[in-house]
Design brief:
The protein is α+β, with helices and mostly antiparallel strands. It contains 6 helices and 14 strands. The protein has an 8-stranded mixed β-sheet, with helices on both faces. Strands 10-9-11-13-12-14 form a 6-stranded mixed β-sheet, sandwiched between helices. Strand 4 and strand 5 (102-110) form a beta hairpin. Helix 1 (3-22) runs antiparallel to helix 2.
Length: 258
């Protein structure tokens, strides 16, 4: 299966999630796993059915590793499921297909607006088919920053947004709507939350670093604290702010390739 066929499959999986959730009337936690909602299970079954049926391996937040093959799709069927369950209109499906070299094809679709972000390795990033580019902002005092977690006091940034769906927030970095996105304090996210967004952001020209200096391209249920910014200078400045409070080693800037 080539990259175009994989992208078509990711689109079909996203379509299946939208259809499944459009008729879902339940609410609340599933009781099967901590923080898992009933809607997560419904969305996961819809997406994984498409992906596995077309011969792709899957690593899902909701159902773990399934299938086998040279390409594995890391999936969060509903990123921002608490938002969705409570009727807050900010959530998405996040899909990142990886091969032996790292992220190959990625798709993030808003479950509220239908806006879709896509990337194929080496070809740039697109929003609804139109090429997008990350912000060129270098000054933290002028930056609008998306944050997961609690910031240690006022940092002097222009504005902060906390919206509850990392993949979609990182895609806002990719299109330049946000200048940066970061994990603050003890907050962390997992590969299914960020891989697709980070791939799309990198293809759009953003720089990515791990505050913990850990590899970001992993197919494991491990927490990470990545930061995404439109420029290397802004990424390092924001990381310095967090490092001054956490006393962690200085991170290095790079891509999220394997």
């Amino acid at each position: 299966m080539d990259s175009t066929e994989i992208l078509d499959t990711l689109r079909a999986a996203a379509d299946a999630v939208v259809v499944a959730l459009s008729t879902f009337e339940g609410s609340g936690l599933s009781g099967k796993r901590q923080t898992q909602y009933h809607l997560d299970v419904v969305a996961d079954e819809a997406a994984c059915g498409i992906l596995l049926g077309r011969g792709l391996a899957v690593f899902s937040e909701e159902s773990g590793a399934q299938g086998a093959g040279d390409v594995t799709v890391v999936i969060d069927p509903v990123d921002g499921s608490t938002n969705t369950d409570r009727g807050i209109p900010f959530s998405c499906i996040s899909l990142c297909a990886l091969d032996g070299q790292g992220p190959l094809v990625s798709l993030v679709r808003s479950l509220t607006t239908g806006v879709t972000y896509e990337a194929i390795r080496g070809t740039g990033a697109r929003r609804d088919g139109v090429t997008i580019h990350a912000s060129d902002q270098v000054d933290p005092a002028q930056a609008i920053v998306g944050v997961n977690g609690i910031l240690p006091g006022h940092q002097g940034w222009a504005q902060v947004r906390t919206m509850g769906a990392a993949a979609l927030e990182i895609c806002l970095v990719a299109e330049g709507a946000l200048d940066a996105y970061l994990q603050a304090g003890g907050a962390s996210i997992h590969p299914w939350d960020y891989l697709a967004g980070l791939h799309i952001a990198e293809e759009a020209g953003a720089h990515v670093l791990s505050i913990d200096d850990e590899p970001l391209t992993v197919i494991e249920a491990v927490p990470r604290r990545p930061l995404v910014a439109g420029t290397k200078a802004l990424a390092l400045a924001l990381a310095d702010t967090l490092r001054s409070h956490s006393h962690r080693p200085r991170p290095t800037v790079g891509d999220s390739g394997a």
